[in-house]
Amino acid sequence: MEKLRQITENLKVSETLKLIGVALVGLVIFMLGWMLGTGRFGLHESGQNKGLPANLNYSSVNEVYNDLKLQYNGKLTTTQLLDGLKTGLANAANDPYTEYFNPAQAKQFNDELNGSFSGIGAELGKDSSNNLEIIAPLAGTPAAKAGLQPKDIIAAINGKDTSGLSIDAAVNEIRGPSGSKVTLTVVRGGNQQLTFTITRANITVPSVTYKILSGNIGYMQINQFSDDTSGLAQKAAQAFQQANVKGVILDLRDNPGGLVDAAVNVSSLWLPEGKTIMQEKEGNTVVQTYTATGNDLLHGVPTVVLINAGSASASEITTGALRDNNAAHVIGVKSYGKGVVQQVDNLAGGAELKVTIASWYRPNGQNINHKGITPDQTVQLTAAQIKAGQDPQQDAALSYLQSH
């Protein structure tokens, strides 16, 4: 507990100091983008930010720049400084999901979203105390094989304290060439400190796998919601339909999320056209309602959704949509709790801005941010059971479907 308390306190202090700095240096970016034509945000003005001035006074930023230029004992480049300013502006939102990516980082981000990258295969996030943590290790990756678990707090990367480290910076530290190693020190359960040395690998993970289990039960696992998810999920649904399955298990455990459109399309496999999947809100104002598309191949088929602490974002959208529309029974443990939506905007030169644009709400009106979705039937899955090849959550799903 002492280590965890120290991590939390260090992070809070570091974030406060960082925001003091970025509140100064970040102000210049809007004007620089307008003057130099280097950026395009393409967003309407958020209703919550209408009180901001039309133009920012960034004279204090020039003061910082001049001091760095004259006095810094090291080599600086224009690109480095501009990337730092843009990163600072994104960080000033004090939102772990709003990030600026330079061109190299943008490529890395998109490769991961599309299921192809070199690293350990773990989605990172921040908990409510700003600790760097594992959202979910992707199935079959080095992270999962090494034994990393959702909610593990990453205290150090290769011996370097993660206090104040952004998600993006941590990803950069953990990523590396296939065959190289990275050592993570994690705090599990608040007081257990563990060390993992993991060999990085080239990872290509199809987002959907499926099969038909004994008893004619369809099993569909979605690892993340990517560009290929909608097509692969439809292919699985068609196979289930042709086999006239008696029920379906939709396994969203350790799925960190991904594309909203993919979540909508997957949910639509069960829901009739027009059914509400989710609503996006800015403050208390509904800005968009997502509804089922009408491609409901699995409508009426008894279904169980499996979730755990690593089920986040788009996974929770799908779970909430099916549960609230009485299309599925949910089994497992409480999900991660990410109830905000990000939009990725393309900037000049291959850079990108990933920005939180709204909060999302389940059909029942609930926002699950930092709360998660509580399953209808809570079933634990321990590390010992995983090691022994047991899966009581899937067993519970099979039992439920056999009785319905």
Task: Give an overview of the whole structure.
There is one protein chain. It is built from twelve helices and 19 strands. The chain has 404 residues and is α+β, with helices and mostly antiparallel strands. Among the domains are: 88 residues, Pdz3 Domain, CATH 2.30.42.10; 180 residues, Alpha-Beta Complex (2-enoyl-CoA Hydratase, Chain A, domain 1), CATH 3.90.226.10. The strands form five sheets. A six-stranded mixed β-sheet has the order 10-11-12-15-16-19, with helices on both faces. Strands 1, 13, 14, 17 and 18 form a five-stranded antiparallel β-sheet that branches. A hairpin with a 3-residue loop joins strand 10 and strand 11. Helix 1 packs across helix 4. The chain is globular and about 75 Å long. 40% of the residues are buried. The N terminus is likely disordered.
Largest β sheet strand count, sense and barrel closure: 6 strands, mixed
Rg, nearest Å: 22 Å
On the 0 to 100 scale, the average pLDDT is: 86
The proportion of residues in beta strands is 25-35%
Q: Class of the domain at 206-340 and 358-402 in CATH?
A: Alpha Beta
Question: What's the CATH architecture of the domain at 206-340 and 358-402?
Answer: Alpha-Beta Complex
Structural class: alpha+beta
**Strand order of the biggest β-sheet:** 10-11-12-15-16-19
Question: What is the approximate shape?
Answer: globular
User: Poorly predicted ranges (pLDDT <50, ≥5 residues)?
Assistant: 1-44
Q: Could you give the count of β-strands? A: 19
CATH fold title of the domain at 206-340 and 358-402: 2-enoyl-CoA Hydratase, Chain A, domain 1
Number of helices: 12
CATH-level-4 superfamily name of the domain at 206-340 and 358-402: 2-enoyl-CoA Hydratase, Chain A, domain 1
- Estimated helix fraction: 25-40%
Our measurement of the CA-to-CA distance between the termini, rounded to an integer number of angstroms, reads: 45 Å
